[in-house]
Amino acid sequence: MPATDLHHLAIKTHDVDATVEFYNEIIGSHSVKRPNFNFPGAWLQFGETMIHLYGGDAAKNKAGGHDQGSAAIDHIALSARGFDEMRKTIEERNLNWRQFDIPSFNLWQLFVHDPNGVLVELNFDTTQEPDGSKGPDDSNRYDPGNF
């Protein structure tokens, strides 16, 4: 039987609270009940998919430090709505971000790093955006080799 969906992804973080704030307040997830594991963390829900956060010793690498970025995973991509509002929120938080559009796929994109350096790609279906939405302009264009 084939896999049917992405259940969750896990992010190791040195700052659980900052990571929860980023995903809940900026990206739009919400915290859900998590088992009482013997390490700090959080579970965040997006539709049917979750992000599991590992903190404390569970988040450390073999050398005892905390890794940054996405390692072998280049980025995570999430479906989103409200491109203009999301860009405004990201700008108000003074986060480093980029934008892109793929007209042939009716797709607008925003790219931003979470507090752990994980690249988050937000995909907006232009046919589902509110009337009057502006979408990406020619500034701050995403270049995979330079972000």
In a few lines, what is going on in this structure?
By secondary structure, this protein is α/β, with parallel strands linked by helices. Helix content is 15%, strand content 31%. It is built from two helices and eight strands, in the order E-H-E-E-E-E-H-E-E-E.
Tell me what you see in this structure.
The protein has 147 residues and is an alpha/beta fold. It has 2 domains: 1-56, 2,3-Dihydroxybiphenyl 1,2-Dioxygenase, domain 1 (Roll), CATH 3.10.180; 73-147, 2-Layer Sandwich (Signal recognition particle alu RNA binding heterodimer, srp9/1), CATH 3.30.720.110. It is 15% helix and 31% strand. It has 2 helices and 8 strands. The strands form 2 sheets. The protein has a 4-stranded mixed beta sheet, with helices on one face. The protein has a 4-stranded mixed beta sheet with strand order 5-8-7-6, covered by helices on one side. A hairpin with a 2-residue loop joins strand 3 (41-46) and strand 4 (49-54). The longest helix has 12 residues, at 16-27. It starts with 7 loop residues before the first strand and ends in a 22-residue tail after the last strand. The mean pLDDT is 93.
**Cα-to-Cα separation, first versus last residue:** 38 Å
Q: Name the average pLDDT.
A: 93
- What is the helix content? 10-25%
Number of domains: 2
Q: In DSSP terms, counting alpha (H) and pi (I) runs of 4 or more, how many helices?
A: 2
CATH-defined fold name of the largest domain: Signal recognition particle alu RNA binding heterodimer, srp9/1
**Low-pLDDT segments:** none
In sequence order, what are the helices and strands, one letter per element? Answer: EHEEEEHEEE
Q: Quick one: overall form?
A: globular
Number of strands: 8
Per CATH, the architecture of the largest domain is 2-Layer Sandwich
* Range of strand content: 25-35%
- What is the class of the largest domain in the CATH system? Alpha Beta
The rounded Rg comes to 16 Å
Class by alpha and beta content: alpha/beta
Enumerate the strands of the largest sheet in spatial order, edge to edge or round the barrel. Answer: 1-4-3-2
